Amino acid sequence: MKISTRTRYGVRAMIEIARGEPDRGVFQKEIAINQSLSLKYLDHIIHALKTARLISNAKGKKSGYILTRKPSEITVFDIHRAFEPGICLVDCLSGTYKCDLSHGCMARGFWGELNNLILSYFRSVTLDDLMNRRVNLEDGLLSEDLKREEAQ
Question: For the domain that residue 109 is a member of, what is the CATH number?
């Protein structure tokens, strides 16, 4: 499973906005500079976050962005949903995919449980957790064992 760049940048933008001053908001240009993103690409991210009602303008047009809820009330899953319809590791779990082997598939349960674990984790981590480093963002790096296995 690979998380889209829009979702990854969406999380980073949300952290930037959450760290901003509530009465002033965070300007798109500041986010672009701090996250090394083009304004054009960030436009798409901001639009999706606004459509998902995760952010709004602080004082109308030409103002900075603020969160619509407290950081402790916004999960990584909420942010992910702004960009993707959901999380589905394999096609046969999607509900729209027809697989002739699904009735007797011994592996389907494994994929379903793994999918549920990922969903639960996304729902359990809040923006507040990320901001206060209760989740170490560096833990996502591959361990040396995994790097060796992938090289073989």
Answer: 1.10.10.10
